[in-house]
């Protein structure tokens, strides 16, 4: 008995000696797999939501013991947070996007930043193409039409086109904003459909043969479909504005799987309601989980709740990546997905 107790106390002491990784709120992966699937003999999670203390007091209490932060998009890492946590040496994001982390402050403090890398890219690219086909071929609208028992009424009245006529994907001119990991996979998929691809990015990519436009307005003027794949930064905020949407024109379609605020949402709603663009497929919004009510009544708009990465396969891969990155960090080994460029 005493031996068992001694062994138990030893393991408890060993756990107490492990470096702490701060979590502000449980990532979705915890709900799916349980936090025990993230356990490691290299670190221990410190869960802020389990403490009765106000957050600032909780952070001050553990200021010297927390060496890393695991952050999801719903829990921003601000300059004030980092000021309260002077021992932090790593901020690991569970997403590819970093707009919820004060990158400049991390750089100033010499804090390493890592993200989810390309673990989501395939699934996000798939959803972009799915949204596009849905908008062009009226799939969601057709589904509602059948489920609301409107088909028999239409047939009885001889009105075969009240749902509207779809549009072919093959041959469309597609402009991709942000030809990174996700954008490149979107281009690869749409190449297979016979689309003509062009792109806008921070710089022209020497290894890519697609036409490059340094100006997003010019890209929009020369395509039928605009797909937003870039990250959200100060430079890309409201980059898709009235001028860009006007350049896209009345037959244009916008797909956004990047971040909501990249598009001036109020202007997008106006253009859709007034018929100044043809349609939109949106997985992200400016004030999530809020969605402009005007969009809910439009059959030419397909909406999804920021779920482009929601597949079992991706969540399993992310769980593995998070643990391996944290273990590498606390073993003084190279990170798998260190963020080198903060642009």
Give structural notes.
The chain is an alpha/beta fold and 343 residues long. The protein has helices at 2-17, 28-33, 55-61, 79-84, 103-109, 121-137, 139-147, 151-157, 181-192, 216-221, 242-248, 265-273, 312-330; strands at residues 20-23, 44-47, 66-71, 90-93, 112-114, 173-177, 196-200, 225-228, 253-256, 279-282, 301-303. Strands 7-6-8-9-10-11 form a 6-stranded parallel β-sheet. It has a 5-stranded parallel β-sheet with strand order 2-1-3-4-5, sandwiched between helices. 35% of the residues are buried. Mean pLDDT is 92; it is low at 9-13.
Short description, anyone?
With 343 residues, the chain is of the alpha/beta class. It contains 13 helices and eleven strands.
Which features would summarize this protein structure in a list?
343 residues; alpha/beta; six-stranded parallel β-sheet; five-stranded parallel β-sheet; 13 helices
């Amino acid at each position: 008995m005493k031996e068992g107790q001694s062994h138990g106390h030893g393991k408890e002491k060993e756990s107490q000696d492990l470096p702490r990784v701060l979590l502000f709120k449980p990532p979705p992966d915890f709900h799916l797999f349980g936090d025990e699937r993230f356990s490691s003999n290299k670190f221990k999670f410190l869960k802020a939501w389990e403490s009765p203390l106000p957050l600032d007091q909780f952070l001050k209490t553990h200021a010297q013991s927390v060496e890393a932060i695991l952050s999801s998009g719903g829990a921003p890492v601000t300059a004030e947070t980092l000021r309260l946590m002077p021992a932090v040496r790593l901020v690991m994001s569970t997403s590819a996007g970093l707009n919820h982390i004060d990158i400049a402050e991390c750089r100033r403090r010499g804090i390493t930043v890592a993200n989810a890398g390309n673990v989501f890219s395939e699934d996000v690219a798939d959803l972009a193409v799915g949204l596009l086909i849905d908008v062009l071929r009226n799939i969601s609208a057709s589904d509602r039409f059948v489920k609301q028992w409107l088909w028999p009424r239409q047939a009885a009245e001889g009105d075969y086109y009240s749902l509207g006529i779809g549009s072919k994907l093959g041959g469309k001119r597609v402009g991709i904003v942000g030809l990174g990991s996700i954008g490149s996979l979107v281009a690869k998929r749409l190449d297979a459909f016979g689309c003509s691809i062009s792109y806008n990015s921070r710089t022209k990519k020497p290894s890519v043969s697609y036409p490059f436009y340094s100006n997003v307005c010019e890209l929009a003027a020369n395509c039928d479909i605009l797909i937003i794949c870039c990250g959200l930064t100060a430079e890309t905020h409201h980059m898709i504005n009235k001028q860009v949407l006007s350049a896209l024109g009345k037959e244009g379609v916008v797909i956004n799987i990047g971040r909501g605020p990249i598009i001036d949402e109020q202007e997008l709603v106006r253009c859709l309601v007034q018929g100044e663009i043809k349609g939109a497929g949106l997985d992200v919004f400016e004030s999530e989980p809020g969605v402009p009510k005007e969009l809910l009544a439009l059959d030419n708009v397909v909406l999804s709740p920021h779920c482009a990465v929601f597949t079992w396969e991706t969540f399993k891969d992310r769980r593995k990546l998070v643990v391996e990155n944290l273990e590498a960090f606390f073993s003084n080994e190279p990170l798998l997905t260190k963020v080198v460029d903060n642009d």
